[in-house]
Every structure is written in C-alpha cells, then in structure tokens.
C-alpha cells in the first residue's frame, strides 16, 4: 500500500519562507550616507571656515583694544580745547582754540590744580572710571579668542553674551565721553561768567551762551561708539562660527557607521 506525502501545501508556508521570516531584522535599513571622502572634505571645509571666522573675530577684538588705548591717551592729554560765542544756538564768533596747556587746559595733570576744574569741575574725575572700565570690557573677548586658539574650545554662547554686554557698555561710555567733551555742564557756564561776561563777549546780549568742546575727547567718544559697532559685528561673526561648529558636529555624527542587528 503506497502512502503519498504531499509536501509544500498551500496551507502551510515552506521551510525557506519560515526561515526568511524568522531571520528578518526588526530594524529598518540604514540610511544613505555620503561617501567618506565627501564627508571628510566637507568637514575640512567647515573647519577652515570656522578658523577664518575665529581670526576675523580676533582681529576685531584687537582693533577694539587698540581704539580703547588711543581713546585713553586722548582723554589724558585732552588736545584741541576750543570755545566760541553763541546767540540763540547760532554761532556768532570764530572758534578760539588756545595752544595746548595755555588756556583752560584739560589734561589729567591739571585735574587737581586747575582753577576751572574746582567745585563742579571735579566731575571730570568720572572720566577715569570711563577709561578704566573701557579697558576691562575690551579684555574678556580677547581672552575667549586666546582660549579658542590654544584649546579649541569655542564657548560660542558665552562669547555672544560678552559681545552683547560690550555693545551696551561702549554705547554708555560714548555717551558719557560726549558729555565730557562738550563741557560736562560746567565749562560753558564757567567761561561765560569770567569777568561778568566781558571775557566771552556776552555782556548785554540776551540769549548769549558759550560753546565748548575738547576735540580729543570728542574723538574718544567716537571711538567708543565705533567699538560698540565692532562688537555687534563680532557677535554676528561668533554666531556664524558657532553655526558652522554645530553643523560640523552633525556631520561627524552622521559619518559614524550604523550597525544593524541580525
């Protein structure tokens, strides 16, 4: 009696099909990645761009420090002391600029002894705080640049914060220095009152005032405002470099091989 055995009926899957289903990986296929050579080239390009931005930022910060030092010298030497007569806000006399140190000297070695810098004139010592603080606010960004150049640590967020604080600080310094450069609410009144107005020529002239400026201090104020603008540019450069650094990290993560489970 022959018994026939039917193999591979339609009701039960074949052994090969069961084996394939058993060994199918539950993980999805790995994503497509760029060629390693392309990834390395892209990484090098971004590293070169980040270094370029770092050098640009370093140059900006060195220039800021240079401007601060020049402003300090201008404040201490106070060149270009000038005054003139105004009537109703309109200049009515030529600008008088005595030789340096002869009439109304404003350099630092006269801040204690000069007659025109007594009483309310003692407010001039506030400039010492301006020049000291300006140096202190110019140094931290340079320290961040040195850290990046020596150790490679970016500290991008901290650098952006430092640049933002520098913008506000130098705007304040520029405003104060402008106030000092125009007589700090003291020198025009002092000159007008000399000889009851005979020195300035305001005797009997209604609406007569005295204009006053220290041109060296005005230049220092302009330098402080320029430093604020440079710190804005520096913050943009740091942000762009930080973005490149973030993209480089993403490329490094994607370039790692993905191992599937089999």
Automatic annotation (TrEMBL):
Keywords: Membrane, Transmembrane, Transmembrane helix
Superkingdom, natural source: Eukaryota
Transmembrane segments: 53-76, 124-148, 160-180, 217-239
Region spans: Disordered: 1-35
Biased amino acid composition, Polar residues: 1-17
Protein name in UniProt: Uncharacterized protein
The species this protein was found in: Heterodera schachtii (Sugarbeet cyst nematode worm)
């Amino acid at each position: 009696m022959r018994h026939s055995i039917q193999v591979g009926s339609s009701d039960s899957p074949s052994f090969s099909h069961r084996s394939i289903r058993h060994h199918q990986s539950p993980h999805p296929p790995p994503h497509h990645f760029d060629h390693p050579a392309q990834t390395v080239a892209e990484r090098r390009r971004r590293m070169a761009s980040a270094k370029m931005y770092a050098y640009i930022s370093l140059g900006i910060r060195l220039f800021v420090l240079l401007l601060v030092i020049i402003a300090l010298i201008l404040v201490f030497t106070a060149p270009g002391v000038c005054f003139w007569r105004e009537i109703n806000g309109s200049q009515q006399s030529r600008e008088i600029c005595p030789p340096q140190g002869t009439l109304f000297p404003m350099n630092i070695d006269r801040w204690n002894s000069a007659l025109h810098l007594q009483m309310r004139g003692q407010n001039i010592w506030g400039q010492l705080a301006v020049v000291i603080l300006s140096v202190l606010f110019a140094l931290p960004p340079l320290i961040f640049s040195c850290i990046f150049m020596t150790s490679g640590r970016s500290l991008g967020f901290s650098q952006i914060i430092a640049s933002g604080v520098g913008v506000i600080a130098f705007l304040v310094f520029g405003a104060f220095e402008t106030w000092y450069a125009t007589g700090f609410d003291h020198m025009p009144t002092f000159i007008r009152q000399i000889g009851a107005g005979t020195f300035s020529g305001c005797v009997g002239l209604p609406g007569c005032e005295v204009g006053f400026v220290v041109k060296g201090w005005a230049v220092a104020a302009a330098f402080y405002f320029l430093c604020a603008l440079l710190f804005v540019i520096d913050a943009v450069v740091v942000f762009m470099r930080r973005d490149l650094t973030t993209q480089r990290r993403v490329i490094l993560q994607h370039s790692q091989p993905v191992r599937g489970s089999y």
